[in-house]
Amino acid sequence: MKNKTVTRINRGTGGHWVGDGFPVSTLFSYDTQGPDISPFLLLDYAGPAAFEPADKPRGVEKHPHRGFETVTVVYQGEVEHKDNAGNSGKIGPGDVQWMTAARGILHEEMHGRDFTRKGGTLEMIQLWVNLPAADKMGDPRYQEILNKDIPVADLPGDAGHVRLIAGKYDGKDGAAETFTPLNLWDMRLKGGKSVTLSIPEGHNASLLVLSGKVGAGGETLGKKELAQFTREGDTLTLDVQEDTVALLMSGEPIDEPIVGRGPFVMNTHDEIRAAMNDYAAGRF
C-alpha cells in the first residue's frame, strides 16, 4: 500500500457564465492539463448562486456535443434536460444526469420550471468524461440517475458515507454505466475522523471540496478547492477537520490524442472539422 500524494491544487477563483443560468468556475480542463486528468476532460462548479423568482427559465439553450459524456450532479436547485434523441428529464438535489453525446447530440439545460417560479439557490457540478476513440461515434445515451437509486456505502470508523454515482466501493457497484473504469463518489465526511480509501494504482484522481475542510496527500483543502494526485499509489488518506462534502473522481487514463474545439472533443483535427461540418449540415 502506498498513499497518493498531491501534484496540484486548483482553486475556484474568478469564473464565467454558461448561458444565463450557470455562473461557473472551471477547476480543471484538458486544454491545459490533458493526460494529467484523463479520462476526465473538464470540471465546472456552478454556484452556489441565488436566483430571484422569474417567469422564464434561465440556462443554456440548444447546443451540440460530440465525442464525450457530460455528467451533471445537483446539490441545490433544479435542472431540466431535453435533447433531440427524445430524452427529457428533471433532476434536483442528489440527482445525476449522465449524458453520452458520442457521435452527436443537441440538448438544452435549463433551470427547472418550479425552481424558476420560486427562485432559490443553485449549486451543481458538470464533469466532462472522455470516450475512447472506438466509442466516440457510437450511439448517444442518456442516464437519469435519481438520488434514491444511488447506492450508499458507510465509511469505516463512522467517518461518514459515500454515494456511489459510478465505480466500486467496498463490494458495491455504482449506479452509472461507464465506458472505461472510473469512480465518481459523492462523499459526506464527519469532522474529526480519518479514513483511508482504496484507489486503483495508475488511476488519475482528484478531490473537490464543496464545503468543509479536509487534509489529503499532505495538503489541506477548503471550500471550492480541488486537489489532483499522483497516478502512483493505491490509497488516499483523508483527515477530516470539519464536516465536509466532497466529490472524488478517479479513472484509468485513456492513452489517446485529445483534440477539442468548443463542444467537440475528438482525436484528430480532421475529426473536429468533420464534427463542425456535420453540425452545420444538420446531421446531429
Describe this structure in words.
- Helices cover 8% and strands 52% of the residues.
- The protein is built from three helices and 26 strands.
- The strands form six sheets. Strands 1-22-19-24-17-14-13 form a seven-stranded antiparallel sheet, with no helix packed on it. A seven-stranded antiparallel sheet has the order 2-3-4-11-6-9-12. Strands 5-10-7-8 form a four-stranded antiparallel sheet.
- β25 and β26 (264-266) form a beta hairpin.
- The chain starts with 5 loop residues before the first strand and ends with a helix.
Tertiary shape: globular
How do the SSEs run, as a string of H and E?
EEEHEEEEEEEHEEEEEEEEEEEEEEEEH
Low-confidence stretches: none
Mean pLDDT: 95
Count of individual beta strands: 26
**Separate helix tally:** 3
Distance between the termini: 47 Å
- Structural class by sheet pairing and helices: mainly beta
Radius of gyration: 18 Å
| Strand adjacency order, main sheet | 1-22-19-24-17-14-13
**Roughly what percent helix?**
under 10%
Sheet with most strands: 7 strands, antiparallel
Beta percentage is over 45%
